[in-house]
Specification:
Distance between the termini: 57 Å
Strand order of the largest sheet: 1-2-3-4-5-6-7-8
Shape: elongated
Order of helices and strands: HHHHEEEEEEEE
CATH topology of the largest domain: Lipocalin
Number of helices: 4
CATH architecture of the largest domain: Beta Barrel
Structural class: alpha+beta
């Protein structure tokens, strides 16, 4: 593979990885296929890079150092920041409340209330699901509305903040989410940031 083609392929992979925040929820369970392809693509590029560097050392051709240096920086960036170098979530507003839950198999859910009365819940397990909408806070109860969801499941109607569960380990309480038409069943998350009272 020529150095220009290798650089172009690396830039494309870098852009795909850097914008994963936006396209991951679209693929759903198909991510189980997409990620191995991206990982294979990454290691193929690393292999080509090492091959090209070996050729430069053997042949002494230093003209391609700029290309290979750029490729090395991009591949190192992907390795160090596999979800992209830009945190796109910060562009969606300041976090007033963050709650999360980590499950088995590295599954986790992050829930964020933003200062612009919007909320985002992002869950990652075998796929990535994102629920977004607006909220209204009345005392310790959060009411959800205008929900945009990536899954077919109904989103919660409201949540209750329980600050009595706070401890010294960075936990500010619990967030219990509920469906309106169900018997009370708690879907709980640990609150790790709570600026709602400030």
């Amino acid at each position: 593979m020529k150095s220009k083609s290798l650089l172009t392929s690396t830039i494309i992979l870098f852009l795909i990885v850097s914008t994963a925040y936006y396209w991951e929820p679209i693929f759903g369970l198909f991510l189980l296929v997409v990620f191995p392809i991206l990982i294979g693509w990454y290691f193929l590029l690393v292999g080509f890079l090492l091959f090209k560097l070996t050729l430069i050392i053997i042949e002494g051709n230093k003209k391609e150092f700029a290309y290979l240096g750029s490729i090395s920086i991009l591949l190192l960036s992907i390795y160090l920041r596999p979800y992209g170098i830009i945190n796109f979530e910060k562009f969606e507003g300041k976090d007033l409340l963050i709650a999360h839950r980590k499950g088995g198999g590295s599954c986790h859910t992050f829930f964020r209330l933003k200062e612009n009365n919007k909320f985002i819940e992002r869950s990652r397990c075998f796929s990535v699901t994102v629920n977004k909408g607006t909220y209204e806070l009345k005392g310790d109860t959060i009411f959800f509305s205008d929900i945009k969801k990536w899954s077919s499941e109904d989103y919660f109607d409201y949540a209750i903040i329980d600050r009595s569960k706070a401890n010294q380990n960075g936990i500010h309480g619990m967030l219990f989410r509920y469906h309106k038409n169900e018997p009370p069943k708690k879907y709980d998350l640990w609150i790790t940031k709570d600026d709602l009272t400030q």
